[in-house]
Amino acid sequence: MPGWLGDNIVTIVNGVSFGLLLYLLAVGLSIMYGMLGVLNLAHGALYLIGGYVAVVIVAGDMSWTTFLLALTVAALAGGLGGAGLALATRPVSKRGRMHEALLTLGVALAATTLLTVFFGGEPRSVPVPEVLSGSVDLLGHDYPVYRLAVIVLGLLIALGVELLLEHTSLGATVRAIVADRDMAQALGIDVRKVYIGVFSAGSALAMVCGVLGSPILGVGPGVDGQVLLIALVVVVVGGLGSARGALFSAVPIGIVQNVGTALVPPARTIPAVRRDDDPAGVAAAGPRPRQGAGGLMKNVLGAVTSVVLVGLPFVADTYAIATITQIVTYSLLALSLLLMMGHAGMPSLGQAGFFGVGGYTAGLVAMHWTSNAVLVLLSAVLAATAVAAGTGWLLVRSKHSYLIMLTLAIGEILSFVAIAWVSVTGGSDGLANVPYFTLAPADLSIPGQVYWFVLVVAAVIVLVLRQLLRSPFGRSVRGIRDNEQRMRALGYRTRVYKFAVLCVAGAISGAAGALWVTQTHYISPGDMGFLASAFALLAVVIGGVHSMWGVTLGAAVIILVQNLLPEDLQGAGPLVLGLVLVLAVYLLPNGIASVRVRT
Q: How do the domains of the chain map onto residue ranges?
C-alpha cells in the first residue's frame, strides 16, 4: 500500500501492541492509586520478575503449553506478591502516602538487585511460542503473529476489566471506594479486603505483562525503570483510578514511544505529562519534629565537628579524604531535596537532573573555556538555576502526585538530552578527562586541598541556607507548606515563593554537581537519572526531612555502602540501600534526627 500509512504501518501497529502492554501494567497501578492512594514504585520490579519467570520456565522450550504455564505462574506469584505488598504498606498508611511510596521503592531496589545477582547483568531474550512464531502480510509487510496476539489478548483483558468494573457488584464496590473511601467504609464495605484484592490483581497483571513483554522488550537490568516511568505517565494522562482512561492513554503513548524510537534510536522518548492538581496528596509533609538539646551543647558539638573536619587532611589517608569529600558533596544534593520536601512540601524524584546539569556545565567550562574553580562553580550554579527556573513555572502549578510525576519526567528528559547530545556530552559514555580545576595558590590536584575547597563551598552554602530559612522568607515557605490556601488568602503569592525555592534548590544541586566533577573529573547520564534521585531521596529519609545534619548522615550511609562493600559485592549496593530504606520507613519515620538519647 503506497503512502505514509503503508510505509509506517509496522511502526504504528508495534506502538499499539506496546501500548496495550503499557495498559496491562498501568491499569493496576492506576486503580491502586485511585482507590488506595498508594503510589507503588515496585510495579516495574514486578514486571521484571514476570520477565524472569518467562526466562526460567520457557528457556529453550517454545511450546504454547510452556508459555501458558509461565503466564499462570506469573499471575499466581504476582497475586501473592501484591497481597504481601498490601499487608506491608498497611502499618505505614497512617503516616502519609509518601511513606508508602518510599516503602515500595525500597522493595523495588532490593528485588531488582537480587534479580541481577541471580541472573547476571546481561539482557536475556525469551523465544516466542512456536504456534505464534510466524508472520502475516500487513499491507505488504511481514508482521509477527506474536505481536498481533498480544494486541488481541490485551484488548480481551481490557474488555474483561471494563465489564468487571462497570457491570458487576465487585466493580461497583471498587468504584465506590475510588469515589469516596470513607463513605464506602461507613456503608459497611470491607475496604481492607478490597485493598488486598486490588493490590493482588494489579500486581498479577504487572507480572503477566512481564511474561508477555519479554519476547518483545527482552529482560534485564533497567527494563523495570523504563516501563515504570512510562506507565506512570499513562496513569497521570489517563486519570488516577480510571481503567478506561489508562487504555485510551496507553495506546497513543505506545505509538508515540515507537515512532520516537524509530526516529531517534539511541535514546529514549519521554512522553509529556499532564499538569493537574491532586487533592489527595502523595507527599504532604508531616509535622515538624521538636528541636533537640539545648543551644550550648549544639554549639559545642558544632565547634568540635568543625575542628575535626578542618584538620582531617593532616591525619587521614588519601582514600578516607576522598570518601569524606564525596559525602560532603552528596550532602549538598540531599540538602537541596530537604529544602524542597521538608521546608516547602514539594517532593521530587528528579533532583539529580539539576546535579547533572551542574556537573556537565562544570566539565564543559573547564575543558573549553577556563579551569578557574570559582568561575567553573559559578557557571554550574547559573546553568542549574536557569534550568530550574525554566521548569519551575510548570512545577509550581502542580501538587502532590502530579508534582512527583513532573519532577520524574524532567529528570528523565535531562538525562535523555545528556544521552542524545553526543557531540557535547559524550552520550552514554559520559564526559571524561575533565581537567583539574585551578585556584591559586591552592593545588586542586591534591586530594586534601580539593577537600578543603569542597568543605569551604559547602559551609558557605549551609550558612546562607540557614539564614534564608530563618528569615521571613523561610517562615513564609513553611507556612505555605502547612496551609497554602490560608497563605494565599492572607495575600501571599505562593507560587512565587515556591518558584524561588525551586531555583535555590536547583542552584544547590548544580553546585554539588560541579564539586562532584572537581573530584571525579567525570560525569555521565547515570549521575542524573532516576536511581541517583532515588538515592538522594533515601539520604533525606534516613536523616530526616527537617534536619541538615541528619541528611549529612544519610548521605554518609549512601556513600559508605557504595564504597566500602567488598569488591565481589559491589553490585549489591542497591540491595543494602533498599533494605535500609524499608527499615527507615518502619523504624525511623522522621529519620535519624528524631532519635532522642535518654539520660
A: 20-263, 323-528
SS3 of residue 523 by DSSP: strand
- The pLDDT value recorded for residue 587 is 79
Contacts for 531 with CB less than 8 Å, ≥ 6 apart:
225, 574
Q: Report the DSSP beta bridge partners of residue 142.
A: 137
pTM: 0.79
The average confidence (pLDDT) of the chain is 81
In angstroms, rounded to a whole number, what is the distance separating the alpha carbons of residues 480 and 285?
A: 11
- Separation CA 52–CA 58 (nearest Å): 10
CA pseudo-torsion sign 461, 467, 473, 474:
positive
Measuring CA to CA, which residue among 540, 513, 510 is closest to residue 346? 540
Cell of 78: 504476582
Burial 285-299 (b: 16+ CB within 10 A, else e): bbebbeeeeeeeeee
Taking the alpha carbons at both ends of the chain, their separation in whole angstroms is 83
Q: Please choose, from the candidates 552, 573, 574, the residue with its C-alpha nearest in 3D space to the C-alpha of residue 564.
A: 573
Q: Residue 373's pLDDT is what?
A: 92
Cα–Cα distance, 312 to 322 (Å, whole number): 11
* E strand or H helix that includes residue 141: strand 141-144
H helix runs in 435-529, sequence order:
447-470, 472-482, 484-489, 494-520
- To which residue does cell 503510589 refer? 39
* 490, three cell numbers: 492572607
Q: Which of 223-232, 274-283, 442-451 has the lowest mean pLDDT?
A: 274-283
Please give the grid coordinates belonging to residue 359. Answer: 556537573
Q: CA of 448: how far to CAs of 104, 314, 455, 523, in Å? A: 40, 8, 10, 21
> Using CA atoms, how far apart are residues 7 and 395, in angstroms rounded to an integer?
39
Q: Is 494 helix (H, G, I), strand (E, B) or coil?
A: helix
Please write the tens of the pLDDT for every residue from 553-575: 888 888 888 777 655 555 666 78
**Which residue bears the cell 587532611?**
313
Q: Which amino acid is at 373?
A: A
DSSP 438: B
The residues with which 135 forms a beta bridge, in sequence order, are 144
**Residue 372 three-state SS:** strand
Q: Is the peptide bond before 441 cis (omega within 30 degrees of 0)?
A: yes
Give the DSSP H or E segment for 52.
Answer: helix 43-58
Backbone dihedral angles phi then psi of residue 240, each to the nearest 5 degrees: -65, 125
Please answer whether residues 253 and 156 qualify as being in contact, where contact means their C-beta atoms are separated by less than 8 angstroms. Answer: no
Q: Which of 78, 102, 9, 53 is nearest to 545 (CA)?
A: 102
Q: Where on the phi/psi map is residue 293: left (φ > 0), alpha (ψ -120 to 50), or beta?
A: beta
**Virtual torsion, Cα 511, 513, 518, 523, nearest 10 deg:** -160
pLDDT of residue 408 exceeding 70, the answer is yes
Q: How many angstroms separate the CA atoms of 387 and 406, rounded?
A: 14
- The alpha-carbon radius of gyration of the chain (Å, integer) is 25
